[in-house]
Write a structure and sequence with these properties.
Layout lengths: L3 H16 L2 E8 L4 E12 L3 E2 L2 E5 L5 E4 L8 E8 L5 E4 L5 H5 L9 E12 L4 E10 L5 H21 L2
Parallel strand pairs: 1-4, 1-6, 2-5
Antiparallel strand pairs: 2-9, 3-4, 6-7, 8-9
Amino acid sequence: MIYPGFLLLIFVSGLIGSINAQKRDYIIDEDFKGRVIIVESQCGEVPPIKQERLQFKIPENGVYFFNGELKSGVIDENYYYRQPNGKLVKIRGYFSKDEIDKSDSLSAEHLVGVFGGSFGTYGNDGNNFLIKYFETNKNYSERSTWKQNNTQDEFIRDFKLNCK
């Protein structure tokens, strides 16, 4: 039998976690697809904050250097794409594998959702990074995905070398 005190402890812990969670909004252009990487860097940008939420406006290349701390643990994340008129449209955070398997090559390309991601540390400098995948209804070859990822990785290496 689960004791009421234990249930209360779980509830209070969850409540405290959600109150203290880092709140992040990821904003991409309407035609963006692929991998987004946010890297901690003293040479990075301080994103605007709206309603206590960090506003990561992701550049065209998908790499955002963040002058701040990427916290782990309970995170409150929202995903948006920006229409040409500036209006933000919310993207579903996660979707099922079945939706990816239903990809097609005939209809117009559109975002399906945001898939997975990872959190880690770059090299020996202790800077954290996180990765998110903005997936569409289209399948891309491994070569084109590798090319985008390699271009981003080279950009990050060059940026870090020039950050003094």
